[in-house]
Write a structure and sequence with these properties.
The protein has about 350 residues and is of the alpha+beta class. It has helices spanning about 1-10, 110, 145-150, 175-180, 305-310, 315-345, and strands at about 25-30, 35, 45, 50-55, 60-65, 65-70, 75-80, 90-100, 125-135, 150-160, 165, 170-175, 200-205, 225, 230-240, 240-250, 255, 260, 275-280, 290-300.
Length: about 350
Amino acid sequence: MRYLAFIAAALLSVTAASIRQDAWTLYRHESFDNPAVLTNLQAFGRDGWLTAEIRNDADITISNGMAHFVTANFPGQALLRITETLPDEFKIQVRLGKINFSYLDYEEDDYEDPNFRYTPKRAENGFYWAILSDSKCEGEFGEDFWHSHRKAGMDSDDHGSPWHHTKTPLYMVYSNKTAYEDVETVGSAYRPDGRLKSTYISLWRQGSIEWNRRPKWDWDVAYVYDPNSWYWAEIEKSNGTVTLRLYDGDKNLLEETAPIDQELIWGMGTTASPEEYFYLGEPHVDSYEGDAYVDEILFYVVDDSLVAQPWAWRTPIAVLALLSFVALWCACKFIPMFKRSKTTKQ
């Protein structure tokens, strides 16, 4: 019987849905054609599908078909999120460029401010290109909040010290579920002593074939970007995996990660968080300052008819094959028994 069960499972597996690239349908598209100076928690776009989160004298201004993100000082926070929680499967693309966030731009007054998290011996400055979070950021949150709520995504993090400068790096990352499920500090990237867990995050190195789950402080860089150029950042969540991609401004592929099994990602898989949000922008109120431009956001969802249609014809065939196998198995098992019984009676 175990062989029968195995074959049945194999036959029926052909009916399982799998998303093809042509099954994506464009659900929302923002090209920033309507000039505006956005305010905190302002919803905009078709049916208010995007929401701005702007705090502490930061600014997001829409003009000339672009959204200009400006946080002139580190307490500022300038973010856009997709307003509602995301569906189970989606693809989001963002075209962005002129990303100017260098740690060398911090001033002496920043380092003397008690609310600033860095020192001249070690500092970082960055921008979220495309991030998935298990929570809304409806408050003045710093880096610690994002370490504990970021699931996966792409961000730039220019950083260094008097002895070293990692200039304009783009990182592709995901948060390791096993680290976040540590019994001492469940749901946190931090150990009880306040230090980050050594394996809280996995990184993608440019040209690699697998993820690095034990990063150093000077993380693996996925791509070194040109601050004056334009890029497309993409997150795809489908078929039980998450894939990150980077394209140039004309959508020529520059880097693509191996698909990540959602069971490896904090807040996904069988222990998925109740909500999931997409963010881009400058997220920290205790660090980061600069400016960047975004001129397009595309939000794709799955067209169920295109997912189901290619497999529909296989379902009756699979069932017919299974019934035929059952009939054959019964014939092979019971006909010889019937013949032996008849022979015995004679």
